[in-house]
């Protein structure tokens, strides 16, 4: 069962951002890229929750982390990956990655699983 299935909408609204962030962190033991692809809620809203909790630096580090980007691309699609970079971060590194992803959207949309399945060393 996914996180979304475990926590119904009413309960999710009742949880504050900090509790949800802690629950997600405990689930994947601070290795955000290890979040299973089936955890659609976590993949979709993690960056938003980090920013909402005032953890902009952590969100920005995530947005430039190759392992996390690769896992997010595998768990979703290129467009939802790009949307996590909006609104644009004030961190220059995150801005550069965002722009690279924006320029790569057509190719990523076609080959996202092929790119995501390649080892990081390639």
Question: What is this structure, in a nutshell?
Answer:
The chain has 122 residues and is mainly α.
Commentary on this structure:
The protein is mostly helical. The protein has one domain: Serine Threonine Protein Phosphatase 5, Tetratricopeptide repeat. It is built from 8 helices and no strands. Helix 3 packs across helix 4 and helix 6 crosses helix 8. The longest helix has 26 residues.
Kindly state the percentage of residues in helix: 55-70%
Shape type? globular
End-to-end gap: 33 Å
Mean pLDDT across every amino acid position: 79
Per DSSP, what share of the residues sits in E-state strands of 2 or more residues?
A: under 5%
| Number of contiguous helices | 8
Instruction: Tell me the radius of gyration.
Output: 14 Å
CATH topology: Serine Threonine Protein Phosphatase 5, Tetratricopeptide repeat
Topology (elements, then pairings):
Blueprint: H1 3-6, H2 9-14, H3 17-28, H4 40-52, H5 56-63, H6 66-75, H7 78-83, H8 92-117
Descriptors for this entry?
122 residues, single chain, Serine Threonine Protein Phosphatase 5, Tetratricopeptide repeat, mainly alpha
């Amino acid at each position: 069962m996914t996180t979304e299935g475990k926590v119904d909408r009413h309960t999710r609204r009742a949880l504050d951002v900090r509790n949800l962030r802690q629950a997600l962190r405990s689930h994947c033991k601070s290795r955000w890229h290890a979040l299973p692809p089936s955890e659609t809620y976590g993949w979709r809203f993690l960056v938003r929750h980090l920013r909402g909790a005032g953890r902009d630096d952590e969100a920005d580090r995530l947005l430039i982390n190759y392992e996390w980007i690769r896992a997010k691309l595998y768990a979703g699609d290129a467009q939802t990956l790009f949307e996590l970079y909006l609104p644009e971060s004030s961190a220059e590194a995150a801005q550069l990655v965002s722009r690279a992803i924006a320029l790569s959207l057509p190719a990523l949309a076609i080959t996202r699983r092929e790119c995501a399945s390649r080892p990081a060393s390639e």
